[in-house]
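Allow me, if you will, to draw on your knowledge of protein folds for a short while. Thank you for your consideration; the sequence and its tokens are set out here:
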Amino acid sequence: MSTIVDTFIAPPCSEEIEILYQDEYLLLINKPAGLLSLSGKKPQNLDSVHYRLVKLFPGCTLVHRLDFGTSGLMVVALNKAINAALCQQFSQRSVNKVYSALLCGHLNDDEGVIDAAIAKDPALFPLMSICAINGKPARSRYRVIERFSQESEEGTLLPLTRVQLTPETGRTHQLRIHCQQLGHPILGCDLYGGLLQPGTEHTPRLMLHASELHFVHPVSGEEIKVRHTSPF
């Protein structure tokens, strides 16, 4: 059995967490790209969404996570009961999440579904892999917003597609590996081919942003629909 060796050390993140909504039960925040959701085991990886927020809101807990490189919307519970209620919504897949992304190349189809099971492989850590035999079911929908070309630092034209991504399941790295499977990795994705095409090498971040979150407030029963415009 392979032992997982995590060598990742997060560079310092100077961007602040933006609190978009707050009541006595929960927070809605905009996470900056380049900030861990939870602190890592290494002392250098102490800074995180939770580490920062717990100083202001003792007892707060994360209901879900975003990858280090992903920016955007997160809901944070301010007590254990709210955490349990929100976690139930996530596990029942009644929470809708929508992401904005820039993909390398021009997609042929205007919309589609990626249905490909995802598995953990300690030998490949931190990469996940597509595996029909050992993987857990994973399904994502995509819709093209626009196709365009952007000039790189070297002066070459880089074809890109702006898409809206809707994960129907919540596997680790799901959108990143599914876009790679589609043949159009997310621009700036270091793990799944988003820095390999000429002109992509100096992309400053992973071009993935959690732009919409729909859930039911666990106390008021009100349907919460929040949107946050992508910064790219």
About this structure: The longest strand covers residues 139-151. Helices lie at 49-56, 80-91, 174-182. The chain is about 10% helix and 35% strand.
